[in-house]
Structure formats: structure tokens, C-alpha cells
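Collaborator request log, item 7. Partner lab (contact: R.S.) asked for a structural prediction of Scavenger receptor class B member 1 to inform their binding assays.
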Amino acid sequence: MVLIVLGAVIAVFFAGWVKSFIHSEIVLRNGSHTFEWWRRPPVTPVMSIYIYNVTNADEFLNDGVKPVLQELGPFVY
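Returned to partner:
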């Protein structure tokens, strides 16, 4: 019985501590770890986008021919 009560009390305090810790770490304020990661990301975000052009669109739409695709890109941002 004592272990059940002790476990419940620890669970309540631990959950509150975890919530408080997470809240203090995710706020963007000057000097926090999150702010430094936001200001100078540890990795450079890169997005590569490829676009495909259907070169035989009329034949594909009207005659049911297999589409011929031309790859354009990558467009890197």
C-alpha cells in the first residue's frame, strides 16, 4: 500500500517537473539553448525539389499513351 501511494506521489511530481523542464527549454528567449539552436542551426537546412514535365501531354490525355516525363531540377533552397 505504501509503495502504491509513494508511486502515485512520485508520478505526480515527476510529471510536473518534466512539464516545467520542457516548457523552460522550448521558449525562445535570449540565452536559452533553443534560442542558440534557432539563431545558429547545427545543420544547414537544404531542400531539393524536382519537377516533372509531361512532354507528350496531348497524346497521354487523348490517346492513352504512356506519358514521357522530363525531370527538371533539382531546385535547391
